[in-house]
Amino acid sequence: MTSEFVSIHGLHKSYGDKVQVLSGIDRAFSRTDRIVVIGPSGGGKSTLLRCVMGLEQIDAGQICLEGEAYVRVANRRTVIDRAVQRRIGMVFQHYTLFPHLTVRKNLVLAPVKAHGFAPSKANSDAERLLARFGLTDKLDVYPAQLSGGQKQRVAIARALMLEPKLMLFDEVTSALDPELVSEVESMIAELADGGMPMMIVTHDMTFARNIATQVLFCAGGVIAEAGSPEQIFSDPQQPRTRDFLRKMRSDEGFRT
Fold first, then answer.
1. Is a pLDDT exceeding 50 seen at residue 1?
2. Is 73 within 8 Å of 59 (Cβ atoms)?
3. I need a surface site. Which of 6, 12, 74, 212 has the fewest CB within 10 A?
4. Greatest Cα pair distance in the chain
């Protein structure tokens, strides 16, 4: 069995004939890595995450989890191994909660209906996760009754219901008011402290620096620079990386 937990080989992704989004991505990560992807809008960050989740058709290459190629191209079409894909959880920017279901039902729906969990187990898992993240009193309310931060925390708990081996987070704080960002980031940090492997796309450079084991700077459809948080944020080697971080500091600053 390979020691690589996630590996991406020769990944190409385009939209139509003219828009090349990813141009030959090659990376490998260990089980202990927390990968943070940064870069300008349109650079391919979110597309990379969606490809890892198996949500995008790809043009070439393959993606492996624990040595198994679950996203690949065969006969010019994308083949996805759904059994392997189910080991991955993803949380999106805009919550994607079902508004007509209570928090409890949002959490138990997929485990029971799609994955065959016993309702008693699903309900027990939902109560345990919401208690862990300080949301016990929200079990039987509807999403409209939650703050943005609470909605995002529920979305993370829902992803954890399927006991994923890898978590993906795509700009999960960018739609939140500034005062709600820290509660979601603290939840992700708790998962990281517990050993959950993860890939995160974020525009929050302070959060990226604090949580990452590796930082990837993605621009123009390629990984233009990769390194430790200390190296990327303190001594970036590529002009594009330096320019991006300078602009981020100018526009928003790093939180302390």
1. no
2. yes
3. 74
4. 55
CA dist., res. 4 & res. 8, Å (int)? 10
Tell me the sheet residues that pair with 38: 217
> How far is C-alpha 80 from the chain's CA centre?
18
| Pairwise CA distance, residues 250 & 241, whole Å | 14
CA 79 to CA 95: how far, in whole Å? 27
In the structure encoding, which two tokens stand for residue 213, read together? 């084991």
What mean pLDDT comes out for the span 119-136? 94
Q: How far is CA 222 from CA 4, 9, 167, in A?
A: 21, 13, 22
Mention every residue, 6+ apart, whose C-beta is less than 8 A from residue 213: 32, 33, 34, 35, 228, 229
3-state secondary structure of 252: coil
- Mean pLDDT of all residues in 193-204: 94
**Beta strands at 198-201 and 34-38: parallel, antiparallel or unpaired:** parallel
